[in-house]
Amino acid sequence: MRLSHFGSTISPVKILFLAYGMLPIAGVPNRGPDCRTQQIADLLRSLGHEVIVSCDDRLSKVSQHGVTMPEEVAHWCHSYRDLDSIIREADPELIYCAPFVLSRIPGASRIDPGIPLILEGGGPLLLEQAHTHFHSDDYHIVLNKHFTSEVAAIRQADHLVVYGERQKYYYLPFTVLAGWDPAQIERLSVVHSALPDEKIVQERTYPEEPRFVFFGGIYSWTSPLPYINALIDELETAGRGSFHMVGGWTCPRSELPPDMRQLDRRLASSSRCDWQPQLHREKLQEFLAGEMGISFEMFGRNIERVLAIPYRTSEALACGLGILCGDGFELARRVEDGLAGWVVNGDDLNVFRSTIHNILRDEDWSSHCRGATALARDEFSYSAVCPVLDEAIRRSGSMNKSRLPILSEHDGRLTSTERRIIDWLRSPRFSALRRLGGRIIDCFAQTSGFHQGKHKGKHKGNSG
Length: 464
Known about the structure:
With about 475 residues, the protein is an alpha/beta fold. The chain is about 40% helix and about 10% strand. The protein is built from 18 helices and twelve strands. Strand 8, helix 8 (about 260-270) and strand 9 (about 275) form a beta-alpha-beta unit. Helix 4 (about 125-130) packs antiparallel against helix 5, helix 7 runs parallel beside helix 13 (about 350-360) and helix 11 (about 310-320) crosses helix 14. The relative contact order is 0.13.
């Protein structure tokens, strides 16, 4: 299928795309970064640019699937080749860099500052690490490492691309610490996940009974398990509808934590549930548009989830699926106003159960999905996203990179003086002051809608 072509407002340039994922390869399950890799390459080419994609095989591990990586892909893969030689051979006029790549590739800090560089901010990795390592002894070391690497990467960039409006404001302080002029907010652009206009379904039929689907990975900080279990309860009670999970597990099933292992067993034993491994993107789209009705997007309320717009959402909308999401989701208002699904109070599991109960009783449930493809065309189509990306490319050639030595390299270890200060503050004489500080922080959290007491346990387990 020929992709839509949207003429760029600038002359075509040669772009080296340093990807975080792998281009889709037959026989290898697609992850979110793989889909984003193909998507960005297609978007840049649709603007008329020549694009060389340098992939990262660390997530996909192509050889483990008994598949040989295509020679053209392997030749440019930065997992196996020195970055300096890639840049010399590619001789790019612009570098587009996926999230986290600059901190992972040896020699990335030596990229010629004369080459315009667009950096994707990606998801808030710092917050993901905060959830994962909250109770670890090396918590401050891990966070400092990710914080300094993200700021260092932004210092190298001319322009920053993020996935959502909230992420734009999350990254603004990072840009200031990286030495960017705080008045130059135009150096940040929101480039949503996007699909070619012709791949957004025009019309589709829906199954008679509601079929809910979750596809992608379940991570410890996302906490969807209470909602999934409640959904299965309602399906089994009503004797109507079904839940399908594609992928989900991000580790071998034998290594699943207890709560995920319990859900895995339940998926296998319930007649209302089905599980299958990750699908290649084309097969996934056929499965979603041909058989499913509602995309499950319910997660525990936390700062990382409030900022996230998963690739899964754009794919589901383009296939005509209604979105079942919490009211903290960035797209919640658009989903509700556009009749593109259901928005639920994410703090109340009983309200969620009641919503599922009503969906299962509603013979016309699919009417709530009719606006899904319209929302996809408005927000996640090439025609919506290409002009924004084109403007980012145009601006990247006119910005001055930061030259301010704001942050120095630091391995995150405390100096002896810093350690003494922390031990001093932890001493009994400061216990009253610490309790007062805790009350102040708790008051702030409550006014912000994030109750510490409610979410304290979610830092410990894998799904709270």
